[in-house]
Design brief:
- The structure is a homotrimer of 340-residue chains.
- Chain A has 340 residues and is an alpha/beta fold.
- Chain A has three domains: 95 residues, MurE/MurF, N-terminal domain (Udp-n-acetylmuramoylalanyl-d-glutamate--2,6- Diaminopimelate Ligase, Chain: A, domain 1), CATH 3.40.1390.10; 150 residues, UDP N-Acetylglucosamine Acyltransferase, domain 1 (3 Solenoid), CATH 2.160.10.10; 29 residues.
- Helices cover 17% and strands 28% of the residues of chain A.
- The first copy, chain A, is built from five helices and 40 strands.
- Chain A has a twelve-stranded mixed beta sheet.
- In chain A, a hairpin with a 5-residue loop joins strand 22 and strand 23.
- Chain A starts with a strand and ends with a helix.
- Chains in contact: A-B, A-C, B-C.
- Chains A and B meet through helix 4 and helix 5 of A and helix 3 and helix 5 of B.
Chain lengths: 340, 340, 340
Amino acid sequence: MEFSLEQLAGILGGTIDGDPSLKVQRLDKIQEGQPGGIAFLANEKYENFFYKTEATAVIVSADFIPSKPYTTALIRVKDPYTSFTTLLEAYQQLHQASLVGIEQPSYMDESSSMGELGYRGAFSYIGKNCILGEGVKIHAHTFIGDRVKIGDGTVIHPGAKICSDTQVGKQCVIHSGAVLGADGFGFAPQEDGSYKTIPQIGNVILEDQVSIGANSTIDRATMGSTLLCKGVKIDNQVHIAHNVVVGAHTAIAAQTGIAGSTTIGAYCIIAGKASIVGHLKIADHTTIGGNTGVTKSIKKSGQTLFGFLAMDLKDFLRSYSIFKNLDDLQKRIQQLEKKG
Amino acid sequence: MEFSLEQLAGILGGTIDGDPSLKVQRLDKIQEGQPGGIAFLANEKYENFFYKTEATAVIVSADFIPSKPYTTALIRVKDPYTSFTTLLEAYQQLHQASLVGIEQPSYMDESSSMGELGYRGAFSYIGKNCILGEGVKIHAHTFIGDRVKIGDGTVIHPGAKICSDTQVGKQCVIHSGAVLGADGFGFAPQEDGSYKTIPQIGNVILEDQVSIGANSTIDRATMGSTLLCKGVKIDNQVHIAHNVVVGAHTAIAAQTGIAGSTTIGAYCIIAGKASIVGHLKIADHTTIGGNTGVTKSIKKSGQTLFGFLAMDLKDFLRSYSIFKNLDDLQKRIQQLEKKG
Amino acid sequence: MEFSLEQLAGILGGTIDGDPSLKVQRLDKIQEGQPGGIAFLANEKYENFFYKTEATAVIVSADFIPSKPYTTALIRVKDPYTSFTTLLEAYQQLHQASLVGIEQPSYMDESSSMGELGYRGAFSYIGKNCILGEGVKIHAHTFIGDRVKIGDGTVIHPGAKICSDTQVGKQCVIHSGAVLGADGFGFAPQEDGSYKTIPQIGNVILEDQVSIGANSTIDRATMGSTLLCKGVKIDNQVHIAHNVVVGAHTAIAAQTGIAGSTTIGAYCIIAGKASIVGHLKIADHTTIGGNTGVTKSIKKSGQTLFGFLAMDLKDFLRSYSIFKNLDDLQKRIQQLEKKG
């Protein structure tokens, strides 16, 4: 895909300093700009790179006044960052839209159906009685079990596994290697110390605009549904156990784990490697720090929690700063004891 | 699959209040019961849901006396929870048993063999000199390397990878995306600071009734075997390094990691995100809490350990409750110093 | 593959005690030696096993004098461990070299090319405009997106996913289920509390001799590149976020996570389950302990850090030993208060 500066200035409502017929094929960082690329300058900290960049063009603010010589063409716009993001999105949409059709060999049971403008990559597998919406992109090596529903515009990246009975909403993105709908970890201890498997017959439901990171695992419910509400964003290698509910627009960073039957509120932010034990309720708008272990329900919304066992962030940091010098504290007690 | 209440009451040895010819196709939670479903009531806490449920039938205790009007049929049994579990298991067994045959395209080297009543999904791969037992189910996208043995009744879910020389026992379950037999992380530091790869030529052995969760990784031994004994249950995203041994009927929750050459005893319970360093021995019947870091061998069986560095659970909680108020402790010392 | 002791003694520059025509097919541990295997004895601790081993031959030191009867043949060499490692490497090289050709069905776009002596397993997928070097081994179920470059001698294990625009150097090893080049976790918060996806158009670059463990995820950069320099060794289930740079010959153990835009120095050692927040710089030769949380840049090289929030290892252990007895400390303060 190649665009002239004239075309881009038209899209962005900007003006050109330089040759409008110049062509770009690529979006570059300003500090790594090369011929054929277009970069942006939104932050003064990066202005030095502007004078050195080899990018063909740079998107700058309408009122930007260079203070040194430079070699690139300019597109002047109201807000360079927003304009650049517009180009980024256009780039991705063009890219996704171009993926249409069916590569062979691929497998789809005849009882299943695929909407218009969809894509199925080679070695993709679709089981029985599945319904795929319009523009759904099923990349190579994707596994889709029986009775799965996938909403319009959803993209399933290579090698993701969507097990039987899973329901995925519209405009979701499932990254490579993610597993939706594996059995929950349910075993009943027997008298002899062994375990008996508890069948897991529930499913996984993703509402619209949910994103699941690479190699994350969302287990099916024992009964009922493991539910990720609208707009939930989940990073890589996150583990969501059976019967968990995650409220709308909650974001969960990499390697976090949530144990069975816990309900997370809406608009929460959970940092990386946090862990939340089972059967809790976490209030809306809760922020949970990295590595934090949550073992009790959070009833009051808007708190920020942190620590090996979750506590108020500021309290933890105060205690930890004393922990760092516990040796000193101990010596002061020894001093007092000697005096006494 | 559809059953009449008469058939189900026959299986469960129960009696029917209502129309024996009513049909159910589904197992429901009582709070989410819908027409066509059968639910159960075993816990008084859920009795309110009983009066509202739309399930076609509910399994209740033989002596249950409703205190309000209700609309569902009843199957009265001695122990509703056990009866429901019986139905759950029957449901899963019927489902698994129905998977027989070979979908195409699939790949199996001619030197390998597959037992009766087995299943191989499309795009499954089986290398050289493999022996698959009776009723083994190899789902789509499964990879099985060379010289792999898989015992009767084992199920390998979509996209699991069983690398060369792995031995899997009978009635094991390997979930999607699990990797058995990748190389152990073995590198010899060189004088120039670089690393030389130490070839990993051992294998992975799973005894009977072992379960491995989605996206878990069990590395092959450097030499000899990484060994998971009978009945071991492993959750999602667990990492078991080279030459680890896990004793019989030990359960390990999600995202736990066990470093190389450590031996875990039998009947242990290891909660989520625990980590155990290499070359340790952990006694039988040890309980290790979530997020706990174990850096020393555990010789005495039956202990419960917890903490950033593992210690007795109660001791940790006592220390942590003081840690939470360390600021207060510091102030009390300051007071004493002033007085002094 | 079968070798006579005469052949092996020739390769190793050793001498034989026993029948030079004896054949071995396998490398064994001395404590598990069986007929047809060759073991080694380098450490006195294992000498007892020597007298019991059933291995066909044992590699021993030139000056080794047995003190009891034994049944195995000997190959006497200068350094038994080094000799055994030589055999291990020869074994693996022979094994890899024997994998040549294309299994069917497999998929490669006609615009892509594959070097000589390469291997592509069944169900492997190679997208558009890819260039694969000489002797590249692409195992079954591997996904390779568009415009991917892979250097000579690199091995991609079953079911790894190398997404579009990734560049992989020479002699790299990518283990099963690893995902290179999934989208970075980039979302812009909107005024209504929802998130807008920030397109991720950068890539992943691996220099030569990089190893990536099973089910690890290396995200593509938002723009520019996520970069793993020469000789970096990464264990299983490690997460490397967008725009991270890892310096040459740094080793990272299992389940560690590194957040976006952090730069790790060269020759670092990072133990298992460590976590490093985003936008930091970690000096060369830094050692980071297991489970350690790093939240600040490390400027001085050669430090060893440990703890829930990283601090000097010795300082942490000193503080933690007092933490274990905080109850005692509190009681001593109470005593002092009573006296006062």
